[in-house]
Design brief:
The chain contains 15 helices and nine strands. It is of the alpha/beta class and 383 residues long. A nine-stranded mixed sheet has the order 1-4-3-5-2-6-7-8-9, sandwiched between helices. It is elongated, with a radius of gyration of 29 Å. The chain binds guanosine-5'-diphosphate and magnesium ion.
Amino acid sequence: MGENIMILSIVVSLLTVTVLLWFLRKTPESERQEKLAAEEKKSAEVEAEAKAETEVAKVTEEKKPSAVEVKEPTISFADRLKKGLSRSRNEIWGKVAGLFRSGINADTLEQVEELLYSADLGPQMTQELIDALEAEVKKGEISEEKFKEFLFQFLNSKMQSVQETVRPELLKFNKTTHQGTKVIMIVGVNGAGKTTTIGKLATKLRQDGASVVVGACDTFRAAAVDQLQVWCDRAGATMIRAKEGANPTGVAYDALQHALNEKADYCILDTAGRLHTKENLMDELKKTKSVLTKLDPVAPHETLLVIDAITGQNALRQADEFHKTLTLSGLIFTKCDGSSKAGSAVGIVKALQVPIVYIGVGESAEDLDHFVLEDYLKALLDF
Ligand SMILES: Nc1nc2c(ncn2[C@@H]2O[C@H](COP(=O)(O)OP(=O)(O)O)[C@@H](O)[C@H]2O)c(=O)[nH]1
Ligand SMILES: [Mg+2]
């Protein structure tokens, strides 16, 4: 009898434990739920971090941007481009073409090759160009005009297919077709011309009738934020700023949040080219880019790298690094007026397969415009 009770109680305990284990077991569903909860917690933490920043960030200009004064530029952009590219033309391309004036022989061909190397097209493209040129010379006499034509065709063929991928809505605001807030993240090393370009771009878009919110995410120097504020005030763009040293990612989050609340047509983010912390710049930019997706899963719509033409050959290495981390959608070539290295643009476009969307040829608002390949090559080669 006692034995029976003992066996019974053992059976009951075993059953209880089995039932308990059955309830506690992890089903795929419960695992999925747990994973979801963990993801949500992480996402909330990121937002909280960004929000903490947004408390620091303050909107200096709450009012809706008023219409901008449209000042007709006295010089057309085509002329500005031509003037801007004069150094490249005179110091490199014009000199090369000039060598064809008195006929071409082995000696002049060598001089041509030397000059082409200094044009910063990149070693691979320079070699391709030289090979193509040698083949052309074998066919017969080349006049200066014929050489220019050959050069135009060569450079055009290298860039054209990539340039055709530029989305028109990036270049011109169209009120009837525009949808939502387009986020443009501007990146580049310190001094490349990001802030100036954003000032010019904001002015341009405002002149087209768009509403623009600018996020001053480069918190490295207060003076740089003030420099952007001047541009924004002039353009009639709203600027979101934080105090010096604030977390750049937080400012980006705040700026986009504000732009979405205001239903702004564009949100342009001026990012850092250097950081206060020892953190890696690329990691910070990557974090900034990904935090934007919390507010809009497809943001940023454009990630544009600003490249200073003076950088020459290093520009390709730089662009490559940014592209690997951030998957660039376009390039903006600045300071083409101050350098003979404007030709390096061709090599970068070809190597990265990323188009140039804008070109800067000076410091005023009118010195930025769409990059039109044909115009650029004509100005460079003096057609
Ligand atoms: N000549 C010339 N100067 C430029 C151009 N774009 C920018 N700059 C100047 O380059 C300097 C650095 O520009 P900034 O926008 O502050 O660079 P950031 O550090 O990338 O934001 C400033 O003195 C600008 O006025 C350009 O297209 N042409
Ligand atoms: Mg700046």
